[in-house]
Amino acid sequence: MNDHDQDRRHFLCVLGCAGAAAAAAPGCGEEAPPSPPFTAGRVAEHPQGLWKIYRAQKVAVGRDAMGYFAFSLLCPHEGYDVTFRMANGDCMGTAACTAASTMGSFVCESGHGGTFDGNGARTGGPPMRGLTHYQVTVSAGTITVNPGVTVADTARSMG
Question: Rg of the chain over CA atoms, in angstroms?
Fold first, then answer.
């Protein structure tokens, strides 16, 4: 093996290791590991047409005519936090926000400006897909979200 072949081999090895490390790091197209299941309150706290934001778990829980649903508040493009923006301002803390997608949108403001509608579907920017939806169960009037189980964006749980 000549010096050129050794240099090329070393370069490819370093490049491969760097690529593997980058692919495993959050913020490189991968979301952080899911949080454990959590209680998202009582059914009465989630009226139809509203979202409730759970910032600690980085999850939004909503209710529409078909039932309860939950999705990640981490952008699928690079894992940045997604914020709800109403037409007239920001939804703060765990306050409920008007869920009509015409009243606002979810925005990845820290990253590249990806936007998502009220069901987490991609509406603009570089993400190639919508926000990840999670399993929701309703039992005895209590809503539980399991971020360890992903579901279709059409999945709903009735209360």
Answer: 19
